[in-house]
Each structure stands twice: as structure tokens, then as C-alpha cells.
């Protein structure tokens, strides 16, 4: 049976799962929600986790039903309030439809919160940051693609030089050829072949570097774009809940206005009692929507503050890791090229070979000196 998942894909998913679990475990609210994290980490069989989820859903359903019963029965059993007579389903539907049409024709006044300005600033900041991060990710992706192209180019380049070196080594095969010419041809062929091997090594380094940049720089930034999308979605949930609250407040006002019109009007006692029941139910609904809205708003502000602190730490680490990655990569590239200098400078005649040997030493010194200057400049930064 052929495996569906490569080791690289499994490792990528493992890292993603580890990041997710760490975020949940470090979140003060999420890690304590109904033992979900503990069950996710400890329950080994799929059936056991399914039963756990079913129990949680049942508990949430029972809690919701209990709240609904409290809302609908809160006025019953109160001796000070008369219980309105029961109406047929058709009459109830007609009353609700009439109220709904009347409310729909009335304009909705948006509920105003003291945190509106702050959350509007958050939304503008998130939109701007998301746009800039997408721009960085796009250019980072282009660099990764170019790095892979460079790796392929170096491979072809190295192969060409290897074949050239092998061809140069076999050019002088005559028994009458001077021994010096044979030696020089062999030395040049060896140097050219070494050039090809070096380019091949650089090809491997470039390919590895592209994968490191993808995993260590592009993917973390892409993950932050997903986080920003979640922040915008949370702000969108707040807007939706505010609309629901605003509509509920409008409907309550409509019911209260209708109730005031028939108060103390002879023959409207039953209608008045019906409206009073609807007003109590709508008041309870408004209070519920308002509590939910304020909870959402408070959580957004709290989570956004945490997001900003985590972003500063994570961005700093991501950029520093990227810089260190580039330093190490360039040092390894420089080392490969530096090791090739003595081989090429040693190609030539007797005098050239001697001077080439010295040149090889000077080449090594030049590589080391350049590296030292490079390091000192970085330290200055």
C-alpha cells in the first residue's frame, strides 16, 4: 500500500498542530473551556472524543433551553400580573406579523457604544497591517521562487563545467605530447571539474535556503495574515450583534408605543395584556442581546491588546531569524567559493604554479579578510 503522506507533509502538519496547541494552551480562556484541551490531548480513540463532544453539545443545549424557559415563564406565577387569555395560533401569527411589518417600516437607530471609536481605530489598523503584510509575503514568495530558480541554474551551470573539465582532461592524449602540456591540461581539467562540483554544492545550498526562507519567514507571515482575518471576522461579529441589538431595541420601542396607545382604552384590555407580555419578552431579549454584545466588545478589546503584544514579539523573532539565516547562508556560499580559489590560481606553468600557490594563499586570506569585514559591519548594525 502506497503511503498517502510524505515525511515532509507530516512534519509540516506536526509543526502546525504544535503551534495551534501552544496558542490554545497559552490562552487564559481557551485552555479552560470545558476541559476541551485536556480531552484533545489525552483521549486516544476517536469514539471517546466524539462522546466528549456530544456531551458538551448536550450540556450547552440544556443550558440554552433553561434560559429560554426562564425568559418565557418569568411572568407566570406572579399574583400581581394577570395572565392574558390564550389565543389561537392564527391570531398569534397575525399579531406578530402586524408588529413585524410595523417595525420593519420604522428606521433602525444604530446602538452607540463608548468603545466605537477605539474599535474603529482597531479595524483601520488591521486593514492597513493586513495590506502591508500581504505585500511583504508577495515579495518574499518571489524571492523564494527566484532562489529555487538560482538553485536549478547553478545545477545546470555546475554540470556544464564538470563536462567541460572532463573534456579538457582528455584533450591531450598523444604519446608525443610534451609532459608539461599533459600536466597542464590535467590541472586545468581538474580545476574546471572542481568548479562544476562547487556549483553543484552551491545549488544544494540555494535549494535548502529557499526551503528555510519559505518555512521560517514566508509561512509565519502568512499565518499572521490568517490571524488578522480572524480579527476582522471578530469585529464583523460585533457589527452583526450590534445590528441585532439595534433591531431588538427598535421592536421594543414599537411595542411600548402600541401599548401606550391602548392603555386605559375600554375594550382593549385583552390586547393590552397581550402587548404587556410581548413587551416583557422583548425587554428580556434586549437585555440578553445587550449582554452578549458587550461581552463580544470586551473580548475584542482584550484579545486585540494581547494580539499586539504577541505580534511585536513574534515579528521581532521572525525578522531576526531571517537575518541570521541570510548571514549563515552567505558565509557558507563564501566558504565554497573561497575553497575554489587556490585550485584555479594553481593552474599554469612552473612560475605560474609557484605564483599560483602564493595566490592561493592570498586568495584564502582575502576570503577571510572579507568575512571579517562583513562580520564587523553586521556587529556595527
Descriptive account of the structure:
With 381 residues, this protein is an all-alpha fold. The protein contains 8 helices and no strands. The protein has helices spanning 7-26, 36-42, 46-73, 89-105, 116-169, 179-261, 269-345, 350-380. The longest helix is centred in the middle third of the chain and has 83 residues, at 179-261.
How far the N terminus sits from the C terminus, by CA atoms, comes to 55 Å
Low-pLDDT runs of 5+ residues are 67-85, 349-361, 366-381
At the fourth level of CATH, the homologous superfamily of the domain at 88-348 is Arfaptin homology (AH) domain/BAR domain
Secondary-structure class = mainly alpha
Number of helices: 8
Outline type: elongated
Descriptive keywords:
381 residues, mainly alpha, Substrate Binding Domain Of Dnak, Chain:A, Domain 2, 8 helices, elongated, disordered C terminus
Concise summary:
This protein is an all-alpha fold and 381 residues long. Helix content is 83%, strand content 0%.
Fold topology:
Layout: H1 7-26, H2 36-42, H3 46-73, H4 89-105, H5 116-169, H6 179-261, H7 269-345, H8 350-380
Helix pairs in contact: 4-6, 5-6, 6-7, 7-8
Amino acid at each position: 500500500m502506497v503511503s498517502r503522506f510524505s515525511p515532509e507533509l507530516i512534519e509540516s502538519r506536526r509543526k502546525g498542530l504544535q503551534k495551534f496547541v501552544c496558542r490554545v494552551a497559552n490562552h487564559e480562556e481557551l485552555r479552560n473551556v470545558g476541559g476541551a484541551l485536556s480531552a484533545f490531548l489525552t483521549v486516544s480513540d476517536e469514539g471517546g472524543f466524539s462522546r466528549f463532544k456530544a456531551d458538551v453539545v448536550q450540556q450547552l443545549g440544556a443550558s440554552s433551553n433553561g434560559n429560554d424557559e426562564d425568559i418565557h415563564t418569568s411572568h407566570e406565577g406572579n399574583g400581581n400580573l394577570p395572565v392574558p387569555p390564550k389565543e389561537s395560533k392564527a391570531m398569534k401569527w397575525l399579531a406578530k406579523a402586524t408588529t413585524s411589518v410595523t417595525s420593519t417600516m420604522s428606521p433602525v437607530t444604530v446602538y452607540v457604544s463608548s468603545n466605537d471609536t477605539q474599535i474603529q481605530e482597531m479595524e483601520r489598523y488591521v486593514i492597513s497591517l493586513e495590506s502591508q503584510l500581504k505585500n511583504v509575503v508577495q515579495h518574499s514568495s518571489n524571492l523564494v521562487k527566484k532562489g529555487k530558480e538560482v538553485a536549478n541554474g547553478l545545477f545546470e551551470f555546475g554540470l556544464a563545467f564538470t563536462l567541460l573539465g572532463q573534456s579538457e582532461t582528455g584533450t591531450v592524449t598523444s604519446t608525443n605530447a610534451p609532459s608539461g602540456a599533459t600536466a597542464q591540461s590535467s590541472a586545468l581539467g581538474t580545476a574546471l571539474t572542481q568548479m562544476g562540483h562547487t556549483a553543484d554544492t552551491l545549488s544544494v545550498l540555494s535549494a535548502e535556503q529557499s526551503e528555510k526562507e519559505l518555512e521560517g519567514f514566508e509561512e509565519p507571515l502568512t499565518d499572521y495574515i490568517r490571524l488578522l482575518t480572524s480579527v476582522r471576522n471578530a469585529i464583523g461579529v460585533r457589527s452583526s450583534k450590534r445590528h441585532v441589538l439595534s433591531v431588538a431595541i427598535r421592536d421594543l420601542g414599537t411595542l411600548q408605543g402600541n401599548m401606550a396607545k391602548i392603555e386605559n382604552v375600554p375594550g382593549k384590555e385583552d390586547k393590552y395584556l397581550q402587548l404587556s407580555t410581548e413587551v416583557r419578552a422583548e425587554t428580556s431579549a434586549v437585555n440578553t442581546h445587550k449582554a452578549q454584545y458587550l461581552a463580544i466588545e470586551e473580548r475584542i478589546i482584550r484579545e486585540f491588546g494581547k494580539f499586539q503584544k504577541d505580534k511585536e514579539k513574534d515579528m521581532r523573532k521572525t525578522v531576526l531569524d531571517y537575518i541570521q539565516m541570510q548571514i549563515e547562508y552567505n558565509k557558507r556560499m563564501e566558504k565554497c567559493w573561497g575553497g575554489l580559489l587556490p585550485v584555479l590560481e594553481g593552474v599554469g606553468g612552473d612560475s605560474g604554479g609557484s605564483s599560483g600557490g602564493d595566490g592561493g594563499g592570498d586568495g584564502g586570506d582575502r576570503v577571510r579578510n572579507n568575512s571579517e569585514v562583513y562580520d564587523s559591519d553586521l556587529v556595527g548594525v
